[in-house]
Amino acid sequence: NSAGKKKKYLKAALYVGDLDPDVTEDMLYKKFRPAGPLRFTRICRDPVTRSPLGYGYVNFRFPADAEWALNTMNFDLI
């Protein structure tokens, strides 16, 4: 039974706002990867036009890495 083997992930996501429309998910990954292992990055987009909405999320594997990034990289330019 695979239901008993599901991995539990702790919440370790950071909101990233005021993004330039030219910022990509790869750019977010490269910026935040030095803080620790990432699960994924996401730029939020309009569902119809697919235009970026100016914000996104960086999902870390470990909450301590997300906290470190928040404390040391807050207000950094991308």
Automatic annotation (TrEMBL):
Q: What is this protein called?
A: Poly binding protein, cytoplasmic 5
- Which InterPro entries does this chain map to? Nucleotide-bd_a/b_plait_sf, RBD_domain_sf, RRM_dom
Record keywords: Repeat included? yes
Q: Which PROSITE patterns match?
A: RRM (PS50102)
The UniProt keyword set, sorted, is: Repeat, RNA-binding
Looking at the record, the residues that make up the RRM domain are: 12-78
The organism's superkingdom is given as: Eukaryota
